[in-house]
Hints:
There is one protein chain. With 416 residues, the protein is mainly beta. It has a single domain, classed as Outer membrane protein transport protein (OMPP1/FadL/TodX) (Porin, Beta Barrel), CATH 2.40.160. The protein is built from 5 helices and 21 strands. The strands form 2 sheets. A 14-stranded antiparallel beta barrel has the order 1-3-4-5-6-7-8-11-12-16-17-18-19-21. Residues 1-22 have low confidence and may be disordered.
Amino acid sequence: MKTIARYLVTLVLIACCASTLSANGLNLNGSGSRAMGMAGAVISWTNDVSLFYFNPAGAAFAEKSWVSLFETNLLPSGTYVLSPYGIDAKTQSKVYPAGALGFVKPLSDKLTVGIGVYTPSGTGSAWDGTELKNLAGGQVCTWKSFFGVFTVSPLLAYKVTDQLSLGASINLNYGMLKIERPALGQYKEDLNGIGFGATVGMQYKPTDKLSFGLSFKPPVKVTLKGDATMAGAALVGAANASDITRKATLPMWLGAGVSFKPLDKLRLGLDVNWTNWKKLDEIPVEFSDAYWTVLMKVPAAKAAFDQTIPLDWKDCLQVRVGAEYMVNEQWSLRVGYMRDPSPTPLTTMSILLPQIPYNMFTVGAGYTGDKLSVHAALEILRGEEQTVPLSPANRMPGVHNMNIVVPSITIAYRFD
């Protein structure tokens, strides 16, 4: 247990020092290399650390206790071009780590418990202020953003019959939001907060070749609090700092999946995931400083002090397909594809909250021994260029695009 505790601390430290970048709104696209190798088409047969993210019901089919560590790195490459302003910018070269740690223990033939730590949500970007100075009146400012959620999930799964299992987890979510952008000089905010959620799931396996799964996450309200600073606030007679509060709701998520084995060595998976992003109209802001609040409504100061993040997002439907081929009892190969739409309309597109439609291609391989298993995967997300017309109605006109490469590795150990 001391070793597990050390892994937990290490994982949390890695996550809290990192920015993660996602598709599908604020959500990351999965957890666990075995699942990622199949593009996350695993809701009907989760059997490793990915079950904390996709479907806790899979824990009921664990035959032994196991502990698993998942590590991934996101390597984004984004571009933003606004030719009338002479802007041709690229994201800074950075590696964004994320990960998960899971522990599962069967208490009986029917009942299984577990606990996981993972990153379900994250988005952000970092840009060279020199390349964007024409958007800031010639000032070289920092342009960075980061939104991340880190979740601790105690889990309970029950095998109703040999074919049917149910599972649920309580999710303690720790959220962080950081923004750096121009306003009156350099503007910065740094917030964090806690919200509680849950995941419930079901798996049904009528035969050895066919399996179905359902998974549901209700909305989660998160209140983030911290401080904001604005270097040039004194120019309008305001203090250069204020306490700040933002209230955001992580929306409802529903996933359904089916897997089929047309051959003994081949498994095919199909998942459909729906996220209720339409409920997330904006991320509002409240300042404790009364004068900052007044300036939010003054036309001459509104652009600097009204830090509300408009979204007007729409609901999104992801379709995931994947395949796993067992070369022999130990070695396996995987491929997958996902169509990942963006919830963002062109009117609210922003380089600080990059939302690009992606086509995601995945490959993976793994070794499963009697006790130790190692799996690796590679995701390649190809963004579709988004052209936002130059118009006062659009928040950030220009040509936006993003490509992401995501390698990962998962190590698991089974024991009695």
